[in-house]
Amino acid sequence: MKEKILIGITASFHENKENLPLSQNIVGRDYVLSIIAAGAIPIVVPVIQEKKLIEEYADFLDGLLLPGGEDVCPKYYGQNPHEKLGRVSEIRDHTELILTKKMAELKKPIFGICRGMQVLNIAFGGDLIQDIPSADEAYAQHFGKMEQRAKPWHQIEIINKKSKLYQVFGREKVEVNSFHHQAVDRVAEGFYITARAQDGIVEAIENPQAKIWGVQFHPENMAQEDPEFLNLFKLFVEECR
Asked: Exactly one of 96, 114, 154, 203 is catalytic; which is it?
């Protein structure tokens, strides 16, 4: 019997245009540390062009963690680019969307964080607010201080007591960090909203039938100082058994 759970973490791609062989697939430290602390083995999934190879990763992984990063190209959800759209990586989008759909087809758990939650929503038919500040003046600032990654920036309200978030935190109000200018808009079919910020921005979504869920904040950073946030990763790893 396999003792350790294998969790795929998709990489971001940093292209070195002056020297292409020095381009890098990169995964943030705290995602790796959180998966290890939760009792699983992290497997970095690089950006890949070939659909067949991407799907082969899904065959041997027990679960998939979709991390944060750059904006998602709006062509994948049928919109034109907003003037304040940030940097995109279409090869990363390509890899993650194919892998997400294949993992879902194989009925394997998926956990999305920040951009990762947005990728989940897009993969199953939802769309995004491309730039929060210009979408509505009532929206608060959702981009905290980058040098204080583990510190809370605002409060969220867990609005469904049957959700995974409530299972972990056991209360409705939670202080979280925040580093994003995009957000979930129209929620994909089969998913429901489990948490919102005080200004209404979607902070968590979940598809309970498929063990697929995501959060807009960054628990991997919070987990380095607050064990309560590590419990999100422990719950995810347990689902992957």
From this structure: 114
